[in-house]
Amino acid sequence: MSTVPTTLRDTADDVDGRVLETRLIRLSREKFARDVWGRTPLLTRGAGDFSDLFSAASVDELISRRGLRTPFLRVAKDGSTAPESSFTSPGGVGASVGDQLDDTAVWRSFADGSTLVLQALQRTWGPITDFATRLGTELGHPVQANAYVTPPQSRGFDDHYDVHDVFVLQITGTKRWIIHQPVHPAPLRDEPWTEHRAAVAGAARRGEAYIDTLLGPGDVLYLPRGWLHAAEAQGAVSIHLTLGVHTWTRHALAEQLVQSALELLREDPEMRRSLPLGVDGPGAELAVVRRRLLAAVAEADPAPLFHRARRGQARPAPLGPLEQLGALDGLGPGTAVRLREALEPRLEGRRLATRVGWLDFPERDLPSVLRILDGSARPAGELGLPFVERLLRAGVLVPAEP
Question: Fewer C-beta within 10 Å: the chain N or C terminus?
Answer without folding.
Answer: C
